[in-house]
Amino acid sequence: NQSDLNPRKFTNNLARINIATDFGEGSKDSVRVHWLNNRWDFFVPADTTITQTFGVSSNIRSRTEQLFGVQNILLYNVGEGFSTQLSTLVETHKINNAFRYKTLINPSAIPFNTTVQEFRLEGTFDVRFQSQSFMSTIGMQISERDEKHLLEKIEGVTQFIQFFQDDRAKQESRLDNTALRTTLRTNLLALFSSNDKAVFDGSASVLRYDTPDSLNTDDRDELLINLSLKETHHFSRVFEGAVTAEATLAHSVYLFKDKSANNDWNRIFRLAPELVYHPTSAFTMYNAFEVLANYTVFDFETLIPSVKSYVYRQVAFLDSTSYDITPKVGCDVYVHVRIFERGELKWGDFSERPQQYIQEVTFSPQVRYKYKEQWLFAVGFRSFAQKRFRYVVNERQFESTFLSAGPTTHIIFQFSSLSQIEIVGWKEFQYQSGEKIQDFSNVSMNVRYFF
User: Fold this and answer.
1) How much is the pTM?
2) Which of 18, 108, 324, 377 is deepest in the core (most CB within 10 A)?
Protein backbone atom coordinates (compact mmCIF):
# COMPACT_ATOMS: atom_id res chain seq x y z
CA ASN A 1 0.00 0.00 0.00
CA GLN A 2 1.35 3.42 -0.98
CA SER A 3 -0.06 6.92 -0.61
CA ASP A 4 1.33 10.14 -2.07
CA LEU A 5 -0.01 13.14 -0.16
CA ASN A 6 2.41 15.67 -1.61
CA PRO A 7 4.75 16.54 0.04
CA ARG A 8 4.24 13.56 2.38
CA LYS A 9 4.40 9.88 1.46
CA PHE A 10 3.15 6.79 3.25
CA THR A 11 4.00 3.14 2.65
CA ASN A 12 2.61 0.02 4.30
CA ASN A 13 3.85 -3.28 2.83
CA LEU A 14 3.65 -6.71 4.43
CA ALA A 15 4.36 -10.22 3.18
CA ARG A 16 4.21 -13.64 4.83
CA ILE A 17 5.24 -17.11 3.63
CA ASN A 18 4.33 -20.27 5.52
CA ILE A 19 5.71 -23.68 4.51
CA ALA A 20 4.59 -26.71 6.54
CA THR A 21 5.16 -30.45 6.51
CA ASP A 22 2.79 -32.85 8.28
CA PHE A 23 4.42 -36.05 9.54
CA GLY A 24 1.11 -37.51 10.70
CA GLU A 25 -0.22 -38.39 14.15
CA GLY A 26 -0.14 -34.75 15.24
CA SER A 27 3.53 -34.07 14.41
CA LYS A 28 4.52 -31.37 11.95
CA ASP A 29 7.22 -28.86 11.08
CA SER A 30 6.71 -25.36 9.67
CA VAL A 31 8.84 -22.44 8.53
CA ARG A 32 7.41 -18.93 8.56
CA VAL A 33 9.03 -15.97 6.81
CA HIS A 34 7.70 -12.46 7.36
CA TRP A 35 8.72 -9.11 5.86
CA LEU A 36 7.52 -5.60 6.63
CA ASN A 37 8.31 -2.22 5.10
CA ASN A 38 6.55 0.91 6.40
CA ARG A 39 7.03 4.64 5.96
CA TRP A 40 5.28 7.52 7.70
CA ASP A 41 5.90 11.22 7.01
CA PHE A 42 5.04 13.77 9.70
CA PHE A 43 5.02 17.55 9.80
CA VAL A 44 7.26 18.83 12.61
CA PRO A 45 8.06 22.42 13.63
CA ALA A 46 10.83 24.07 11.63
CA ASP A 47 13.33 26.43 13.21
CA THR A 48 13.99 29.93 11.93
CA THR A 49 16.97 29.00 9.74
CA ILE A 50 15.02 26.31 7.84
CA THR A 51 12.02 28.62 7.41
CA GLN A 52 14.21 31.42 5.99
CA THR A 53 16.31 29.09 3.78
CA PHE A 54 13.59 26.91 2.26
CA GLY A 55 10.50 29.08 2.72
CA VAL A 56 8.56 26.41 4.64
CA SER A 57 6.79 26.63 7.98
CA SER A 58 7.24 22.94 8.86
CA ASN A 59 9.92 20.35 8.35
CA ILE A 60 9.02 16.80 7.30
CA ARG A 61 10.20 13.84 9.37
CA SER A 62 10.21 10.46 7.63
CA ARG A 63 10.09 7.34 9.78
CA THR A 64 10.83 4.16 7.81
CA GLU A 65 10.67 0.71 9.31
CA GLN A 66 12.03 -2.52 7.85
CA LEU A 67 11.60 -5.92 9.45
CA PHE A 68 12.60 -9.39 8.30
CA GLY A 69 12.23 -12.59 10.29
CA VAL A 70 12.36 -16.37 9.97
CA GLN A 71 10.67 -18.70 12.44
CA ASN A 72 10.73 -22.48 12.68
CA ILE A 73 8.12 -24.37 14.72
CA LEU A 74 8.51 -28.11 15.30
CA LEU A 75 5.57 -29.90 16.94
CA TYR A 76 6.00 -33.53 18.02
CA ASN A 77 3.23 -35.73 19.36
CA VAL A 78 4.72 -38.00 22.03
CA GLY A 79 1.48 -39.88 22.68
CA GLU A 80 -0.78 -40.51 25.68
CA GLY A 81 -1.91 -36.86 25.52
CA PHE A 82 1.64 -35.42 25.64
CA SER A 83 3.24 -33.26 22.94
CA THR A 84 6.24 -30.95 22.66
CA GLN A 85 6.90 -27.81 20.66
CA LEU A 86 10.27 -26.27 19.80
CA SER A 87 10.31 -22.80 18.26
CA THR A 88 13.21 -20.64 17.09
CA LEU A 89 13.07 -17.10 15.72
CA VAL A 90 15.67 -14.90 14.03
CA GLU A 91 14.62 -11.33 13.28
CA THR A 92 16.20 -8.08 12.14
CA HIS A 93 14.52 -4.72 12.59
CA LYS A 94 15.73 -1.34 11.34
CA ILE A 95 14.13 2.06 11.99
CA ASN A 96 15.29 5.21 10.20
CA ASN A 97 14.38 8.77 11.16
CA ALA A 98 15.20 11.33 8.47
CA PHE A 99 14.43 15.03 8.01
CA ARG A 100 13.62 16.57 4.62
CA TYR A 101 15.23 20.00 5.21
CA LYS A 102 18.61 20.72 6.81
CA THR A 103 20.84 23.75 7.19
CA LEU A 104 24.37 23.99 8.58
CA ILE A 105 24.07 27.57 9.87
CA ASN A 106 23.50 26.53 13.49
CA PRO A 107 25.29 23.21 14.24
CA SER A 108 23.39 22.66 17.49
CA ALA A 109 20.07 22.76 15.57
CA ILE A 110 21.01 20.40 12.71
CA PRO A 111 18.30 17.67 12.50
CA PHE A 112 20.59 14.68 11.92
CA ASN A 113 19.21 11.45 10.48
CA THR A 114 19.41 8.50 12.87
CA THR A 115 19.06 4.73 12.56
CA VAL A 116 18.21 2.05 15.11
CA GLN A 117 19.32 -1.48 14.19
CA GLU A 118 17.89 -4.36 16.20
CA PHE A 119 18.75 -8.07 16.02
CA ARG A 120 16.65 -10.58 17.95
CA LEU A 121 17.20 -14.27 18.59
CA GLU A 122 14.56 -16.27 20.43
CA GLY A 123 14.08 -19.91 21.41
CA THR A 124 11.07 -21.55 23.08
CA PHE A 125 10.39 -25.09 24.31
CA ASP A 126 6.97 -26.20 25.59
CA VAL A 127 5.59 -29.47 26.93
CA ARG A 128 1.82 -29.95 26.68
CA PHE A 129 -0.66 -32.41 28.11
CA GLN A 130 -4.31 -32.67 27.13
CA SER A 131 -7.18 -34.87 28.28
CA GLN A 132 -10.96 -34.53 28.13
CA SER A 133 -11.18 -32.28 31.18
CA PHE A 134 -7.65 -30.93 31.66
CA MET A 135 -5.02 -29.19 29.57
CA SER A 136 -1.64 -27.87 30.66
CA THR A 137 1.44 -26.28 29.12
CA ILE A 138 4.82 -25.79 30.78
CA GLY A 139 7.61 -24.09 28.90
CA MET A 140 10.74 -21.99 28.82
CA GLN A 141 11.70 -19.09 26.59
CA ILE A 142 15.07 -17.40 26.06
CA SER A 143 15.15 -14.15 24.10
CA GLU A 144 18.19 -12.01 23.31
CA ARG A 145 18.11 -8.62 21.62
CA ASP A 146 20.99 -6.46 20.44
CA GLU A 147 20.23 -2.80 19.66
CA LYS A 148 22.55 -0.27 18.02
CA HIS A 149 21.98 3.47 17.48
CA LEU A 150 23.72 5.17 14.54
CA LEU A 151 23.99 8.75 13.28
CA GLU A 152 24.07 9.46 9.55
CA LYS A 153 26.93 11.88 9.07
CA ILE A 154 26.84 14.73 6.55
CA GLU A 155 29.75 14.65 4.10
CA GLY A 156 31.83 17.64 3.01
CA VAL A 157 31.29 19.80 6.09
CA THR A 158 33.71 22.10 7.89
CA GLN A 159 36.01 20.81 10.61
CA PHE A 160 33.91 22.52 13.28
CA ILE A 161 30.69 20.85 12.14
CA GLN A 162 32.57 17.56 11.74
CA PHE A 163 33.65 17.79 15.37
CA PHE A 164 30.07 18.58 16.39
CA GLN A 165 28.53 15.64 14.51
CA ASP A 166 31.21 13.28 15.84
CA ASP A 167 30.07 14.27 19.33
CA ARG A 168 26.42 13.67 18.36
CA ALA A 169 27.37 10.25 16.98
CA LYS A 170 28.92 9.35 20.34
CA GLN A 171 25.74 10.44 22.10
CA GLU A 172 23.70 8.14 19.86
CA SER A 173 26.05 5.19 20.40
CA ARG A 174 25.64 5.55 24.16
CA LEU A 175 22.11 4.25 23.68
CA ASP A 176 23.42 0.88 22.42
CA ASN A 177 22.22 -1.99 24.58
CA THR A 178 21.76 -5.73 24.82
CA ALA A 179 18.91 -7.45 26.64
CA LEU A 180 18.62 -11.10 27.66
CA ARG A 181 15.30 -12.34 29.06
CA THR A 182 14.73 -15.85 30.42
CA THR A 183 11.12 -16.86 31.09
CA LEU A 184 9.44 -19.83 32.73
CA ARG A 185 5.70 -20.07 32.05
CA THR A 186 2.71 -22.32 32.54
CA ASN A 187 -0.93 -22.48 31.50
CA LEU A 188 -3.56 -24.74 33.09
CA LEU A 189 -7.17 -25.28 31.98
CA ALA A 190 -9.54 -27.43 34.05
CA LEU A 191 -13.15 -28.34 33.17
CA PHE A 192 -14.84 -29.17 36.47
CA SER A 193 -18.26 -29.70 34.84
CA SER A 194 -20.26 -28.64 31.80
CA ASN A 195 -20.90 -25.31 33.59
CA ASP A 196 -17.57 -24.61 35.32
CA LYS A 197 -14.05 -24.10 34.11
CA ALA A 198 -10.90 -22.49 35.50
CA VAL A 199 -7.86 -21.10 33.70
CA PHE A 200 -4.51 -20.35 35.36
CA ASP A 201 -1.65 -18.47 33.69
CA GLY A 202 1.69 -17.91 35.35
CA SER A 203 5.13 -16.73 34.30
CA ALA A 204 8.39 -15.68 35.91
CA SER A 205 11.12 -13.93 33.95
CA VAL A 206 14.52 -12.40 34.58
CA LEU A 207 15.84 -9.59 32.38
CA ARG A 208 19.49 -8.61 32.15
CA TYR A 209 19.90 -5.22 30.47
CA ASP A 210 23.47 -4.14 29.63
CA THR A 211 24.91 -1.05 27.93
CA PRO A 212 28.46 -1.19 26.50
CA ASP A 213 29.16 2.55 26.93
CA SER A 214 30.62 3.39 30.34
CA LEU A 215 28.72 6.71 30.41
CA ASN A 216 25.38 4.93 30.12
CA THR A 217 24.40 3.73 33.59
CA ASP A 218 21.02 2.18 32.72
CA ASP A 219 22.40 -1.34 33.32
CA ARG A 220 19.91 -3.24 35.44
CA ASP A 221 18.37 -6.58 36.33
CA GLU A 222 14.60 -7.07 36.46
CA LEU A 223 12.43 -9.79 37.94
CA LEU A 224 8.85 -10.04 36.69
CA ILE A 225 6.18 -12.44 37.99
CA ASN A 226 2.66 -12.59 36.51
CA LEU A 227 -0.13 -14.72 37.98
CA SER A 228 -3.73 -14.92 36.74
CA LEU A 229 -6.65 -17.16 37.73
CA LYS A 230 -10.08 -17.00 36.06
CA GLU A 231 -13.13 -19.07 36.99
CA THR A 232 -16.19 -19.10 34.71
CA HIS A 233 -19.63 -20.44 35.65
CA HIS A 234 -22.68 -20.83 33.38
CA PHE A 235 -25.76 -20.24 35.54
CA SER A 236 -28.03 -20.99 32.60
CA ARG A 237 -28.05 -21.00 28.82
CA VAL A 238 -28.39 -17.20 28.74
CA PHE A 239 -26.49 -16.09 31.83
CA GLU A 240 -22.84 -16.58 32.81
CA GLY A 241 -20.39 -15.04 35.23
CA ALA A 242 -16.65 -15.02 35.75
CA VAL A 243 -14.15 -13.87 38.36
CA THR A 244 -10.54 -12.99 37.52
CA ALA A 245 -7.79 -12.54 40.10
CA GLU A 246 -4.41 -11.22 38.98
CA ALA A 247 -1.11 -10.38 40.65
CA THR A 248 1.97 -8.76 39.12
CA LEU A 249 5.25 -8.45 41.00
CA ALA A 250 8.21 -6.61 39.49
CA HIS A 251 11.60 -5.81 41.01
CA SER A 252 14.12 -3.53 39.27
CA VAL A 253 17.76 -3.31 40.44
CA TYR A 254 20.11 -0.79 38.81
CA LEU A 255 23.75 -1.84 38.92
CA PHE A 256 25.36 1.61 39.17
CA LYS A 257 25.10 3.73 42.29
CA ASP A 258 23.92 6.90 40.50
CA LYS A 259 20.73 5.08 39.44
CA SER A 260 20.26 2.89 42.51
CA ALA A 261 17.69 5.33 43.95
CA ASN A 262 15.33 3.95 41.28
CA ASN A 263 15.52 0.40 42.63
CA ASP A 264 11.96 -0.55 43.44
CA TRP A 265 9.28 -3.20 43.89
CA ASN A 266 6.03 -2.77 42.00
CA ARG A 267 3.10 -4.87 43.21
CA ILE A 268 -0.25 -4.84 41.37
CA PHE A 269 -3.31 -6.77 42.57
CA ARG A 270 -6.57 -6.93 40.63
CA LEU A 271 -9.95 -8.59 41.23
CA ALA A 272 -12.49 -8.38 38.39
CA PRO A 273 -15.90 -10.13 38.38
CA GLU A 274 -18.02 -9.91 35.22
CA LEU A 275 -21.53 -10.92 34.10
CA VAL A 276 -22.97 -11.60 30.64
CA TYR A 277 -26.72 -11.81 30.02
CA HIS A 278 -27.78 -12.87 26.51
CA PRO A 279 -31.43 -13.99 26.57
CA THR A 280 -31.95 -13.60 22.80
CA SER A 281 -29.89 -12.87 19.72
CA ALA A 282 -31.28 -9.32 19.83
CA PHE A 283 -30.22 -8.42 23.38
CA THR A 284 -26.83 -8.56 25.12
CA MET A 285 -25.80 -7.01 28.43
CA TYR A 286 -22.25 -7.10 29.76
CA ASN A 287 -21.32 -5.85 33.25
CA ALA A 288 -17.82 -5.76 34.69
CA PHE A 289 -16.47 -4.64 38.06
CA GLU A 290 -12.86 -4.06 39.02
CA VAL A 291 -10.88 -3.44 42.18
CA LEU A 292 -7.19 -2.66 41.66
CA ALA A 293 -4.30 -1.72 43.94
CA ASN A 294 -0.86 -0.67 42.74
CA TYR A 295 1.99 -0.31 45.26
CA THR A 296 5.42 1.04 44.22
CA VAL A 297 8.03 0.79 46.96
CA PHE A 298 11.58 2.10 46.54
CA ASP A 299 14.36 0.05 48.11
CA PHE A 300 16.25 3.02 49.60
CA GLU A 301 13.45 5.41 50.53
CA THR A 302 14.56 5.38 54.19
CA LEU A 303 18.04 6.55 53.15
CA ILE A 304 17.05 9.12 50.50
CA PRO A 305 14.47 11.67 51.77
CA SER A 306 13.53 12.85 48.25
CA VAL A 307 12.42 9.34 47.21
CA LYS A 308 8.81 8.55 48.17
CA SER A 309 6.92 5.32 47.64
CA TYR A 310 3.37 5.70 46.38
CA VAL A 311 0.08 3.84 46.09
CA TYR A 312 -2.68 3.89 43.48
CA ARG A 313 -6.12 2.36 44.12
CA GLN A 314 -9.02 2.07 41.72
CA VAL A 315 -12.64 0.91 41.64
CA ALA A 316 -14.39 0.71 38.27
CA PHE A 317 -17.71 -0.39 36.80
CA LEU A 318 -18.58 -0.98 33.15
CA ASP A 319 -21.94 -1.60 31.50
CA SER A 320 -22.33 -2.32 27.79
CA THR A 321 -25.84 -3.08 26.55
CA SER A 322 -26.98 -3.70 22.98
CA TYR A 323 -30.58 -4.20 21.83
CA ASP A 324 -31.89 -4.79 18.31
CA ILE A 325 -35.39 -3.28 18.34
CA THR A 326 -36.08 -4.57 14.83
CA PRO A 327 -33.85 -6.35 12.27
CA LYS A 328 -32.86 -2.89 10.99
CA VAL A 329 -33.03 -0.61 14.07
CA GLY A 330 -31.07 -1.02 17.28
CA CYS A 331 -29.54 0.91 20.16
CA ASP A 332 -26.38 0.66 22.27
CA VAL A 333 -25.49 2.11 25.64
CA TYR A 334 -22.01 2.28 27.13
CA VAL A 335 -21.36 3.43 30.72
CA HIS A 336 -18.02 3.45 32.53
CA VAL A 337 -17.49 4.73 36.08
CA ARG A 338 -14.02 4.94 37.60
CA ILE A 339 -12.90 6.18 41.02
CA PHE A 340 -9.21 6.23 41.90
CA GLU A 341 -6.93 7.66 44.54
CA ARG A 342 -3.21 8.38 44.71
CA GLY A 343 -1.04 8.88 47.74
CA GLU A 344 2.31 8.43 49.44
CA LEU A 345 2.95 5.00 50.94
CA LYS A 346 4.90 3.66 53.90
CA TRP A 347 5.18 -0.01 53.06
CA GLY A 348 6.70 -1.05 56.38
CA ASP A 349 3.70 0.27 58.33
CA PHE A 350 1.32 -0.30 55.37
CA SER A 351 0.00 3.21 55.87
CA GLU A 352 -0.56 6.00 53.38
CA ARG A 353 -1.07 9.73 53.09
CA PRO A 354 -3.67 10.39 50.35
CA GLN A 355 -2.91 13.21 47.92
CA GLN A 356 -5.47 13.05 45.10
CA TYR A 357 -8.96 11.64 44.57
CA ILE A 358 -10.63 11.55 41.12
CA GLN A 359 -14.09 10.50 39.88
CA GLU A 360 -14.74 9.81 36.18
CA VAL A 361 -17.96 8.93 34.34
CA THR A 362 -18.23 8.10 30.63
CA PHE A 363 -21.70 7.82 29.06
CA SER A 364 -22.27 7.03 25.39
CA PRO A 365 -25.66 5.99 23.91
CA GLN A 366 -26.35 5.59 20.19
CA VAL A 367 -29.14 4.55 17.81
CA ARG A 368 -28.24 2.61 14.65
CA TYR A 369 -30.02 1.81 11.42
CA LYS A 370 -29.08 -0.89 8.90
CA TYR A 371 -29.93 -0.24 5.25
CA LYS A 372 -29.84 -2.93 2.53
CA GLU A 373 -27.31 -5.12 4.40
CA GLN A 374 -24.35 -3.02 3.17
CA TRP A 375 -24.97 0.24 5.04
CA LEU A 376 -24.96 0.97 8.76
CA PHE A 377 -25.76 4.45 10.10
CA ALA A 378 -25.56 5.43 13.77
CA VAL A 379 -25.99 8.69 15.69
CA GLY A 380 -25.43 9.18 19.37
CA PHE A 381 -23.92 11.20 22.17
CA ARG A 382 -20.73 10.86 24.19
CA SER A 383 -19.82 12.57 27.44
CA PHE A 384 -16.87 12.32 29.79
CA ALA A 385 -17.07 14.02 33.19
CA GLN A 386 -14.28 14.24 35.76
CA LYS A 387 -14.18 15.63 39.28
CA ARG A 388 -10.83 16.23 41.00
CA PHE A 389 -10.20 16.51 44.73
CA ARG A 390 -7.00 17.13 46.68
CA TYR A 391 -6.16 16.40 50.29
CA VAL A 392 -5.19 19.13 52.72
CA VAL A 393 -4.20 17.84 56.16
CA ASN A 394 -5.89 14.52 55.30
CA GLU A 395 -9.16 16.26 54.42
CA ARG A 396 -10.61 15.92 50.92
CA GLN A 397 -11.25 19.27 49.23
CA PHE A 398 -12.86 19.93 45.86
CA GLU A 399 -10.39 21.14 43.21
CA SER A 400 -11.94 21.27 39.71
CA THR A 401 -14.26 19.67 37.15
CA PHE A 402 -13.78 18.77 33.51
CA LEU A 403 -16.54 17.95 31.02
CA SER A 404 -16.21 16.79 27.44
CA ALA A 405 -19.46 16.15 25.55
CA GLY A 406 -20.92 16.18 22.07
CA PRO A 407 -22.81 14.31 19.35
CA THR A 408 -21.35 11.29 17.55
CA THR A 409 -21.93 9.63 14.18
CA HIS A 410 -20.87 6.33 12.70
CA ILE A 411 -21.16 5.11 9.08
CA ILE A 412 -20.10 1.71 7.71
CA PHE A 413 -20.29 0.58 4.08
CA GLN A 414 -19.71 -3.17 3.66
CA PHE A 415 -18.86 -3.81 -0.01
CA SER A 416 -17.82 -7.47 0.54
CA SER A 417 -17.84 -10.02 3.34
CA LEU A 418 -14.40 -8.91 4.62
CA SER A 419 -13.99 -5.42 3.14
CA GLN A 420 -15.53 -2.20 4.36
CA ILE A 421 -15.23 1.59 4.69
CA GLU A 422 -15.83 3.04 8.16
CA ILE A 423 -16.25 6.72 9.04
CA VAL A 424 -16.49 7.93 12.65
CA GLY A 425 -17.24 11.52 13.63
CA TRP A 426 -17.51 13.34 16.95
CA LYS A 427 -18.09 16.99 17.84
CA GLU A 428 -16.46 17.65 21.21
CA PHE A 429 -17.15 20.59 23.53
CA GLN A 430 -14.83 20.95 26.53
CA TYR A 431 -15.60 22.74 29.79
CA GLN A 432 -13.25 23.40 32.71
CA SER A 433 -14.97 24.14 36.05
CA GLY A 434 -18.13 25.22 34.20
CA GLU A 435 -16.41 27.49 31.64
CA LYS A 436 -16.06 26.52 28.00
CA ILE A 437 -12.40 26.25 27.01
CA GLN A 438 -12.46 24.83 23.46
CA ASP A 439 -14.24 22.58 20.98
CA PHE A 440 -13.04 20.05 18.42
CA SER A 441 -14.43 18.33 15.33
CA ASN A 442 -13.07 14.79 15.03
CA VAL A 443 -13.41 12.67 11.87
CA SER A 444 -11.61 9.41 11.11
CA MET A 445 -11.92 7.00 8.19
CA ASN A 446 -10.77 3.40 8.06
CA VAL A 447 -10.68 1.41 4.81
CA ARG A 448 -10.22 -2.35 4.93
CA TYR A 449 -9.96 -4.25 1.65
CA PHE A 450 -9.12 -7.90 1.09
CA PHE A 451 -8.35 -9.21 -2.39
Assistant:
1) 0.85
2) 324
